[in-house]
Amino acid sequence: MSPRFFPYLPFLFFSVCLSAIISFAAHYLRTGQTSMDSRSPLLWGLAAGFFVLFVLCHKVVPLRRRCCLCQEKAGDVLVYPNHKSKRLCRTHLLQEFKEAFLKFEGEMVVFYPALESKEGPYFYQFWAIKDVPREFMENKVGSLVKRALLSVSESGSCSKCGRMSTVAYFGPGAFRWEAMKTGGVQWDIPKFEDITREPALLCNRCVVDEIVYSLRHFNGCFSEAVILPYAERGVFLPGIN
Asked: Which of these, 211, 235, 238, lies nearest to 147 by C-alpha position?
C-alpha cells in the first residue's frame, strides 16, 4: 500500500462505518427488515461520498491556518486593540508585537513570559486594569500589580537608559511555575502570588527584547492568543487555558 494513502485509512474506516449506520437505518425504516445486502449501492455510495468529504476537509482546513502576511503555515494568533485577530507565523507575530509594544505609551506591569521550551495552551496577554474584575484586584496578585503601577508613576526615569519609565518589570526568575494536574494532564501554572522582589522600573525599549526572546522560543502555538496592549494602564502576563 502506498505510504501516501496510509494517512487516509482512518477516513476510510469512519466513512464505511458511518455509511453503514445510515444505510441500515434507512433500510429498516423503509422495509422493517434488520438484514441488508452488503452490496447495497446506497451503502457504498455514501461511503465514497463521506471519504471524499473527509479527505477534502483534511486538505482544505490546514490551508486556512496560514500566516495572513506571508502564507506560511501558522498556528499563532495575535489580537489587536480593536479586538480583531490575525493568524500569523511566529516571525510576523513577533514583529507586530514588538512594534506595538514600543509604540505603547501607557503604564504597564510586565511579567517575563518564561515560556522557553514550554508546550501547551499557553498565552501571553495584556489585561487593561479597567477590565480586571474587582475581586481579582483585591487579592495578593492584584495588590502586587497596583503597587507596581504606583511605583512606575512615581519613578520618572528608566533605571537602565534614563528615558521615561513606563514599565514595572518582573524579569526572569521573578516567579516560579508549579506543576498541577488538570483533566488528567500535568501543566505548569505560574505562581505570581509568591513574588517577593520589587519590579525593575524601565522603559519599553529596555524590556521588549527579553520578552520577544521568550515568545520566540515557546515550543507550542499561541492558539490562545497573544493580546496587544489596548488601554492606558494594564498588565502583561503569561498563563494557560
From this structure: 235
Q: Which distant-in-sequence residues (6+ apart) come within 8 Å of 194 by Cβ? A: 175, 176
List, for residues 163-198, the tens digit of each pLDDT value.
999 999 999 999 999 998 876 778 899 999 999 999
* Helix pair angle (90-103, 208-216), 10° resolution: 160
Q: 229 and 100 in contact (C-beta within 8 Å)? A: yes
Angle at 101 between CA 100 and CA 107, to 5 degrees: 125
The span from the CA of 167 to the CA of 104, in Å, is: 11
Residues ≥6 apart with Cβ < 8 Å to 11: 51, 54, 55, 58
SS3 188: strand
**Rounded distance between C-alpha atoms, residue 83 and residue 178, angstroms:** 31
Q: Which residues contact residue 227 at a Cβ distance below 8 angstroms, ignoring those fewer than 6 apart?
A: 78, 79, 123, 124, 125, 126, 127
Q: Nine-digit cell at 152?
A: 512606575
Q: Are 140 and 148 in contact (CB under 8 A)?
A: no
Domain ranges of the chain: 6-64, 76-240
